[in-house]
User: What shape does this take?
Amino acid sequence: MNSRKDQAMTGQIAKALTEASGLLRRPQRMIPLIRKLVFDKARVTFEHRHLYSYTTTKLASGEALTSLLHWILDAQRPDGGIAAYYSLLTGYSESYPEVTGYIVPTLYDFARSSADDRAAASAERATRWLLSLQMPTGAFPAGLHGSGAQPSVFNTGQILQGLVRAHAETNRPETLRASVSAGDWLVKVQQADGSWSGPGAYQDAAHTYYSMVAWALAELSERATCSSHEQNDYAGYGPAAERNLDWVLSHFRPNGWIDGINLRCHPNYLHFIAYVLQGVLECAILRQRSDAIETVAKSAWVLLRKFETNKYLPGAYEADFKDGHRFTCLTGNAQMSCVWQRLFEVTGDLRYLNAALKMNEMLKPLIPASGPRGIVGGVSGSYPIWGRYQPLRYISWGCKFFADALLLEQRLTRSFDASTVEAWPCAS
Amino acid sequence: MRIVILSSSVYSESACAMAVRMAELRHVPVGALALSTLDRGTLQRKLEQWGVREVARYARTKLIPHRSDEKPQLRNPYLEPVLKHQGGVFRSLREVAAVHGFAIAVCNDQNAPDSIARLKAWSPDLVVFTGGNILRKQLLEVPRLGVLNAHLGLLPEIRGMSSPEWSLLQHIPVGVTIHFMDTGIDTGPILQRYEFPHAPQCESLSDLRNRLIAFGIEKAAEVVAGLDRGTIVATPQADLDKDHQFFVMHDWLRARAAERLTQSRLAAVPGTVNG
Assistant: This one.
């Protein structure tokens, strides 16, 4: 146990030294760093949000969406992968297979909503790069590109999302073959109880946020069966997704808290709580599991009440949503906006849409409107920028989830018809 | 019956109208406990809610005496009949108190120990809430009968904020509920529910809200009289296990609620096609 802690500590020190040395190599990064630190300090000190702060649209969602997508396009490396982050100390990171995978659906959604060819072209480049990374087993590697070749369950699941969508868009057989190969590997290494643990799992442990992998398998089940006459070949993905769904559902407490996020040396960041909810919700929608939707709705409602009452969601929680940490995890906020909007679609309860619209209003002003490439249009890991989650970084998955939230907002508000809204089914 | 009024400010038009209406029904309050107008949080909330121009206009109408040839300026014009006084209108609780003879106390927090001590000194049978803080148990336990509130929505269906707007979007009749407050959000026992019949005549959401406030004050005064006569009893709310709480509505949804109001107005006009 102690050696694990020592290892983690050593890793953190090494990381801090690497980041600091980045500033020594490029001292010109000092200016945007200081500017951002001063800006966030001033904002945190003087800005006191009230009940009506997030109800008015001050920045058009379309403009915010475009700037997020520009950030993502700027972050695409020459190899086709998307960088994990832009650090105020070290600049862009290497390409990140996991995020590159699940950014693909966002790029296609944006291409559709805006008729922007660059987004679709970017998605195709990203897909080609991902195909080049697949291991003979069907798995995809962990970590940043070039950091090691260990197969990773979570990354394979997240990349599978992108591959399934790429196949839906392009109908290229190699993409379906890669998806099926990844799906087969995920089913093969799944534990009997429905979880994933062991060498392919982060820190070798089972995690409830791997519900995102279940979602990917449920997507694959839908896609593969409608793309082939040999449906029996693909019969295993749906049940495997539901086995994991059942395992994750067994970790929900009656008060909405979710056990089993299970990250050693990390608090329960909102990002991971929201992952659990997103994965379960999307998997439940695809598999038509109303029990799972109700369970997610209960947890999502707890967070909605906290957001509506306190005007922000803390970046991390202790068990039972207690002792919220005093920083904001912007990615987790954007994910919760997605969860609430999807719950509105499923339940018709307008309070979810209302909270999501306000959440989007809160996030929009935090996207830098100016600054160098890597900063402008980006979503920082934490607000303030020195918060515990991905400090001093603009992260690609933050942009992805906020873009998803704004794309959902566009779709739902365009199709909204007040006359068809029924008297709501109450959250209870 | 000894009545105390709780107010968000000494300049609150609703509090002034409630005090005047009570006095007209021979229930002159023994006192009013108002939040400080210069409270930083209140000012900031009003600035966000109304905007700088409207706050400045409001301050001018309250602080600078209007000329005799000038039309009285009220934020809620439907309160004018109640607030009319000597060719003008009551502009603050202090003016109402001077005419009807009751005490005014100003505080920064209605739940603070000194505020509760002040309230206890008045030994009220009933507290009428017209605005201020979220009330804590210690304060709610002071009056003999309870703390009465006029909620701008039908309970238990619509609890919480932006109630008229949510009523429109949820296809629930617009109305007012007079109820006793408890530590929950609009979960206390109900005294009377009133549907508001004039919603289709309202020009806008703010017009609807203003009319509902005036309607609620009138109905609250009637309920106070009923409580005094012993003809009205409170009934605990059903559905307390369900979460009927609504929150401040985003402007985009408010615009949809306004569209619904327009549709109901068009539908109410004979010969108009509801588009």
The interface with chain A takes residues 41, 44-45, 48-49, 161, 166, 169-172, 239, 241-254, 256-257, 259-260, 263 of chain B (CB under 8 Å). The radius of gyration of chain B is 19 Å.
